Amino acid sequence: MWRRSPLSRFSSRLSLSSSSSFPNPILIPWSRELCAVNNFSQPPLSPQSSPKPAISGEASSIIAAAAGLGHHYARCYWELSKARLSYESNTNFNDKKQTNSTNFILHVVATSGTGYILGTGNAAVNLSGLCYTCAGTMMIAASANSLNQIFEISNDAKMKRTMRRPLPSGRISVPHAGAWAVIAGASGACLLATKTNMVAAGLGAANLVLYAFVYTPLKQLHPVNTWVGAVVGAIPPLLGWAAASGQISLNSMILPAALYFWQIPHLMALAHLCHSDYASGGYKMLSLFDPTGKRTAAVALRNCFYMVPLGFIAYDWGLTSSWFCIESTLLTMAIAATAFSFYRHGTMEKARKMFHASLLFLPVFMSGLLIHRVYDDNQQPVLEVAGLSNSASSEVIQTQRRKKRAAQAPVAYASAAPFPFLPAPSFYSP
Ligand SMILES: CC(C)=CCC/C(C)=C/CC/C(C)=C/COP(=O)(O)OP(=O)(O)O
């Protein structure tokens, strides 16, 4: 078996098809990469197909081969971008393997889009701005993920979860993957710089560097990598906010903070479920130094609790209505319960439950933020006349809330004390 590029195979197929109507695919030198192309373009080569005039047979071969090539590389780019993040682990039942996956890049884009909408403040969401932000984030994240896979070929080849990725399986060459990463990253950064602003583009570029050049090597050096990875995952909503408002304010930190804390139980569960795989890959995850899972679960549980105040902060800082406090508190208590159960029992089953809870947590949390975000149509003209920016609007709401609360009798706080997420009752009429 020797390796040739799909393009050379493409040309060899052309020469074969011009000499014979039914080239025998076995004569073509295959590599794994080429097999993928051939599988896709097999039908036109089948000896069962009816004989056609030479010229049309040639044309259909060219089209089929080009389509096969396009499909093959589109799939490689898709996988290099980590469009799907999957883990495989033993279930407790009959030692069967179970594969779970999540649409990773869509998750990154969703967090950035949510950040954009929140950063829009009181103004109507600029749909083209939102699309540019999502597209730019997606391209930079695709580039970061491709670079991560280029740097981890030998590690990925040793792990069941990752050995079928395009680089370790030999479906794409390193220079080709590198070119894809450079083009995707540069296009994404240019898109953000030209269509949104330099703050967003700078955050995207800095995050790419943090992920590919700091987090990726750190995975093989020290368990602290998980915390650095959590920072990487927290940046996209900040990028989205900056793309919408042109700045980073304290308010813009709420969703990134949630993402940071959320990633710890998410990544801890993944590291525990795949600990033997991570060990074979040569990665230094906390779970490898914690066979009982107690420390891993404790870290996850602690970070779930850190998320509890976020709903109240979002309300207090004028980002959402008080409903979000209730939802966010219930949600964080639910994920904390799965972390506590993992802490108590330390089983794979409980770790998997925590992982699934973490998958559910984020979309529900972000939907809650969007549904209950404070959006006051009447306030907009006032803000515009006053020359205030969109992100300044939530600061105005926050100041108004503080003034209102300061005018309330102390008893109002006492009555609300057991339920800090509920707004304090008012004892005066304006
Ligand atoms: C805008 C921009 C640059 C966004 C980047 C978003 C991004 C790539 C977040 C990654 C978060 C993270 C630590 C994932 C795990 O990677 P891993 O390397 O541990 O996963 P693996 O084991 O599956 O390779």
From TrEMBL:
It is a multi-pass membrane protein. CDD domains: PT_UbiA_Cox10 (cd13957). Keywords: Heme biosynthesis, Membrane, Transferase, Transmembrane, Transmembrane helix. Pfam families: UbiA (PF01040). One of its GO terms (molecular function) is protoheme IX farnesyltransferase activity. The chain crosses the membrane at residues 104-124, 130-151, 172-194, 200-218, 227-248, 321-343, 355-375. One of its GO terms (biological process) is heme A biosynthetic process. InterPro entries: Protohaem_IX_farnesylTrfase, UbiA_prenyltransferase, UbiA_sf. GO terms for cellular component: membrane; mitochondrion. This is Heme O synthase. It comes from Brassica oleracea var. oleracea.
